Amino acid sequence: MWTTRLTNAATSTSGAHNVVLSRDDLTFVVSLDDWWIMSASQYLADKALKENNLNFKSIDLYGPRAPRRPTWTTDLIETDKGHKVHLLRDGATVATFSLDEFAALSATEFVVEDAVDVAGGLSQYGENIEEVRRHFEGHGNHED
What we know:
Blueprint: E1 3-8, E2 17-23, E3 26-31, H1 32-37, H2 39-51, H3 58-61, E4 72-79, E5 82-89, E6 92-98, H4 99-103, H5 106-122, H6 129-138
Antiparallel strand pairs: 1-2, 2-3, 4-5, 5-6
């Protein structure tokens, strides 16, 4: 059974975190930034947003993606039994999960819960990200 835990990134001075993913004698250290943008994480976050009647997409909640190419990604593969998640490092598959197993990882739960919390907070300003943006564009700082 795979487990995750969050740690501070050893080389970070900005408070960045890593996800330590482990099972038996395998351990991978994945940037939390990469975990946020994995297709499987986004799929699960978007599903939770919809289930909570929040008309937002996870990709819209945290600003533009970093210009760098992520080291860690996922491929979400549809099967006749549901979905499989392939975890890739630099494009090579290093692990395979069922979608339920990936969803149950504490790092994934954190990402999904945070997306719902952020969207819930933004929903007071609009029904979707476009309305929220228009709200804040119309309420910019005005100096006399």
